[in-house]
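Continuing the series of single-chain predictions for the mutant panel. This is the parent chain; the variants come on the following pages.
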Amino acid sequence: MSSSLRPGFQAHQDDKQTAELHARISQETFDQAVQENIDDFEMTPEEALADAITQFEAQGINLNNVVRRVPGAGAEDEPPVLQHVRALQSLVEDLEDDETLDIQFGGGMMRISFRVCGAEAAIQLSEASASVRAELQRERGADQKTSCVLAGHNGGVDALISAMLATWRVPSALPPSLEALALLLMDAECREQLGVRGVAVICAVIRNHAVGTPAVLRAALHAARAAMLIHEHHRQLFVDKGGLLELTLAAMRGHADDGATFLAACGALRATTLADDARTRACKGLEHAKAAVEGGALPMLLAALRSPMRTQASVLAELLATLSRLTVTDEICSRLARMDALPLAITELGNHVTDAAVAKQACFFLANISGNDQCKASIVSGQGHVLIVQAMHLHQHNAGMQTDAVAALGNMALRMPKNSEAIAKAGGLSAIVSALTAHVAYPRMQSKGCLAVRNLVGRNEENIAPFLEQGIEQPLRAVMSANLDGPVHNQAKAALRDMHCSVSLQENFKGEIGSAFILPQGEEHCENHWDKFIETPVAQEAIRKEMDALGIQSE
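Parent structure:
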């Protein structure tokens, strides 16, 4: 299969993100500040603690990684998650037997030395890891994940990796460590502590437990997915050095009837195709998606979408999301069309149009596959555009779903006048205006909405009047105001121009006046060569002839 993109085809672009990192201080620095308040300012321990917290937070320091305690407090005063991490570290340190393991990594073998445990110690390590996991699960979905940060900054990641290695030969003890690690790696600062050793160990667990222990495999896949989020370096380590892409596809083949394991593999596969890390200039998400297609991912995903697995809306949304991530080239779109993926997606959208998650992922898939002109026509002939508009009316407050729906309608209209007519007849114009107006502050909606408007009026000027009547001009100008410069500003301006609205295309001078602007006019107090020329005989003769021609007598 050709890996090139057809002219005009635009693969989905991920929003670049910067992992949220914070200014931190160590526990020792915090304790010293509290002690200084007690010794130098004669504060009570409680006053010293409160003052130190106030002073550090006023300086922009995030204190989630330190225990806010009076120096000398006992271990029982530490947060529960920290107590469990300490217990896990102590159990690993108490192990006496050492072992080495050769792990396949980066085209060679990586030798890792670690402490190994017996059956009784494996149970203790598993219980300690489960305690850490329980504490981390309590704050899932919370804005401030204090337990996660505390565990990560106090050796939690390394302790869990060491526990995994110690229980290497006891598969039943591995899931708690892997699941706790997956929760920890959802935090950006904890991800930075994984390192090459951690990546190699996770890949080795997936490779060695691909058959017979689905719980271990699922947990390892979840950990791999968490490690790759907003982290291109980890992503390339997993794929290029650890062979994660092949391992993930093998897991999907081997567990096609195990929905939970299959979905865990889908999650890891999607993470390999991301290009979301703003810290790196080169992302390989597109190459990973094409490699997954070459490895046979499409037939497995379509088979799952046709299996009883799809009856659960949450599972269906995951499968559609994975399929969407792989729809990145024109030829892949054509291949999916030949495999009857379009009727399948349209049917499932119709069956689950009231479910926001399924509707979002179905629209995302239809938006991506609409990069192919034949697929655009097939979607409209299959009434896919009607279902998209219906979904937009049902989920007006879901910004992500609305954005993917607007993107799908806009892509279908590109270079397809008949599709634009059909979308307008189905009420697509008013749906787009409502979506852009309601979610004008959503960054993706700003660009997708402007492009959709341009595509719908570019070859169908009859859509201009309905758009203007429904108030498209106001949100477009709001997009321009929110983006004073850059591609989104230009898209909004181009959309207004295509709608025949008044826009200023003149770019005002933004630089400082310099020599380039002085030379044509002359400097203000420079020597006046024109006066000297006027006094010459040649100039005087020319002036005299001109005055005679005009009938003016010189004095």
